[in-house]
Predict the structure.
Amino acid sequence: MPTGKVEERVLQPSNRWLNAELILQRPVEKRAMAPYDVIILGLGAMGSAAAYHLARRGRRVLGLEQFTPAHDRGASHGRSRIIREAYFEDPRYVPLIRRAYELWDTLQQESGARLLLPTGGLMIGPEESELVQGALASARQHDLRHELLSRADLRRRFAQFAAEEATVAVWEPRAGALFPEDCIRAHLAGATRAGAVLQFEEPVRQWHAAGDTVEVTTAGGIYSAGRLIVTAGPWAGQVLPRLGLPLEVERNVMYWFRPRDPALFTPDRCPVYIYEYAPRRLVYGFPALRADGIKVAYHHSGELCTPETIRRDVGEDEIQGMRGLLARYLPEANGELLQTATCMYTNTPDGHFIIDRHPDYASVTIACGFSGHGFKFSPVIGEALAEFCEYGHTRHDIELFRLRRFASPV
Ligand SMILES: Cc1cc2nc3c(=O)[nH]c(=O)nc-3n(C[C@H](O)[C@H](O)[C@H](O)COP(=O)(O)OP(=O)(O)OC[C@H]3O[C@@H](n4cnc5c(N)ncnc54)[C@H](O)[C@@H]3O)c2cc1C
């Protein structure tokens, strides 16, 4: 492990591309000098998946995480995440989600843990709503199994939902719930089995990149590698301060209620769902999973924060607000409040992810800005990161996620 003063050498723009070239054809001897091939900064949803895919390819991986495995202080806790395929946000996500399903399945078999519970999914709203139209567009363009349910169909098949006037729903049978803490643990365990060194409660204080070496400083030491992947979730802006990424961290609350009529909310009767209750205002939820009650949450609260300033308590006004909405669309779920928890979204201006090379350092890859909908993709993002950090390209189409879309107009 190198010690002593670390000097940051900022590459000149003219060197930047030259450097990228050199790295792609990096001679083997140089490579052997670095104790690790890749350091991964942050082992949440995306970092754990990247560690898994890189280690399985035989790369020497060091993962550094400031907290404990599958902790509850970032973006990936709360015991459930929706996975769905008729992607209302953009049809270009569909090939990625298809691959994610395959990879979740493999991970599930390998780990022996139940990671994904299929329940089917409903995208509910007025016919012309962005949610319904977007889900239909993805389903039609990619020929996905789906049904468009009228209000009467919805009421007949899913009596839990008090569908309001002019409401329809897109039903997609492959949607379901992921168990995020178990998913992260499965990726971490798979990475460790494949030889990755994963260190927890070891925050990264500094990193430097120059040429084909990156150096990462923690309280425990200075580590070096040929590549760095930054998967720091809500901390991305702090870890990459000079990039000035257009990220906003948002506090979002999850609520668990004990349903008044539990029989209506078992996973075989109640699907996961998203409901557009007012134009572009979304609430979503799950059936009662494992020992939990039903979980509901708004998709985007609008309350900005930082990982340091996030308000972790949940006010009575917020609880009453959610109860008011439940009374309107899911009345039998509006029982005793069991628990609340807060979690952070890291939003980009257009709601699409950021996956790209650091513009100043060819050896640094960044993946952040998952804007509250990244979890379901984590294995395919891990796979894409493993390829991208090594070769500068990946079999997956990640054009939508490139940084250049934020370049200011000339
Ligand atoms: C309430 C809520 C509901 C959501 N629902 C869904 C859903 O239903 N479906 C879906 O697909 N997505 C959903 N998402 C979004 C999804 O969970 C996130 O997009 C995803 O988990 C982001 O993963 P990440 O790896 O970027 O962040 P994280 O999992 O937070 O990982 C970042 C990690 O980096 C570590 N780190 C940061 N800085 C340092 C440092 N200096 N040194 C060491 N370690 C560091 C952090 O401690 C953390 O562990 C939801 C998110 C929230 C908050």
About this structure: The chain has two domains: 20-74+181-243+350-406, 117-177+248-347. The CA atoms of residues 202 and 219 lie 7 Å apart. The longest strand covers residues 337-347. Residues 1-33 have pLDDT under 50 and may be disordered.
